[in-house]
Amino acid sequence: xKYISTRSKIAPVNSAEAILQGLAPDGGLFVxxxxxKMKLEEIGELVEKSYTQRAGIILQKFLTDYTxxxxxxxxxxxxxxxxxxxxxxMSILVQDPQHPKFPIGVAELWHGPTYAFKDLALQILPRLxxxxxKKTGETKEILILVATSGDTGKAALAGFADVPQTKIMxxxxxxxxxxxxxxxxxxxxxxxxxxxxxxGNFDDAQNGVKKIFNDExxxxxxxxxxIKLSSANSINWGRLAPQIVYYFxxxxxxxxxxxxxxGDQVNVIVPTGNFGNILAAYYAKRMGLPIKRLICASxxxxxxxxxxxxxxxxxxxxxxxxxxxxxDILISSNLERLLYHEAGHTDQxxxxxxxxxxxxxxxxxxxxxKKLDKxxxxxxxxxxxTSHMIKEMFTHFxxxxxxxxxxxxxxxxxxxRDTRDMTTCIVAGTASPFKFTGAVLNALGENVDGLDDxxxxxxxxxxxxxxxxxxxxxxxxxxxxxxDVCEKDEMxxxxxxxxxx
Length: 501
Known about the structure:
single chain, about 500 residues, alpha/beta, Rossmann fold, 2 domains, 6-stranded mixed beta sheet, 5-stranded parallel beta sheet, about 45% helix, globular
């Protein structure tokens, strides 16, 4: 399997080189030359496999320059310290007791060390990258640059801390992440890590990182210091490919629970910001997983809802800070990969991305929109609707969800109301509710005035009868190691200071 760019006809590279580079030299994203297929009987064989085994099988389809043993080893090392034996357990809820044939399965993607779905990719990426260094004979030190809207930062820091031949620097929007998310990042230990707040929003941080990647002079300057840039954001194929696994795994778990028969269709609902998580579901569908519809759920930063409804992507709008901060994004980078696969050639994608950079918007043509309409449904949830859904899920099911998963559940409710499509659903449960205690407690009608972050953790555990995750409890009193803040136009200088320490 070779990888090519979404923007031009560059020479194909193997997966190890694509993982090391992160971003293609022309500024595009690496995509597979073709999408591998999974036969229905192969999907059926996953039912009796462990999550680690499922990961090895799916990744072999894409990372063909890795051996099966190497991929299974990477998966074992990545997932052996998750707090649930299944790694991605399914909570199966029957929304309407009168119609038990239409259940909702919440795929709990947050049982890793940082309690967010990003762990499922960012615990295995450092292992894949370590093998990639050996396979390519790369001797330079790899500098991982990350822009985060909250969860990617900590998951990447935890994955890459003290990994040989790497450094990692994470930028996050100052005041734009939850308090727990910030504490997780700024207390991170490791001799090769750095964390920096940026005065701006996530898009400012992401644009700053992209600017560094796309500047040939900067790359040459770093190369002269024996440093090669790479990324742990979902623009890196090595980060995206592992996310495909959990959609196959969740389908297998539904069959195992006797809620589906092999071949039955499901809908998949994903709370969406940078478009990587739902894009992984798109790849699963293209591979043969019986997905009927992909449902893209946004918060009030609903640029994607407008795009799928109108065919116009327009980031020129008011930016909102919400209780689902990991979705507070107006530039969804991974949408570029979808456009490439469905538009069919690089010239069109390059034109769209140029228009986005110069005018802040672009419009796809009617034939392309018609193709996307068959695959996607999109809607958004307001802040009030999100809070109401958190309360409703706890009231009816005694099941507690974080605000991002609540957005997905609300949009699912809208979809079923609008379409009368009661197909069995897989909902991507993206984070532990304990990472967003203030928002969850407020939604449940609890008064949090005067309660610090750790008293809020205890309060949420008490009223929901859930154990507070130990890694979050350990943040109480942890030393702040990364308190620096920079302006968005100072990011490059901060990177250069970090690598020359």
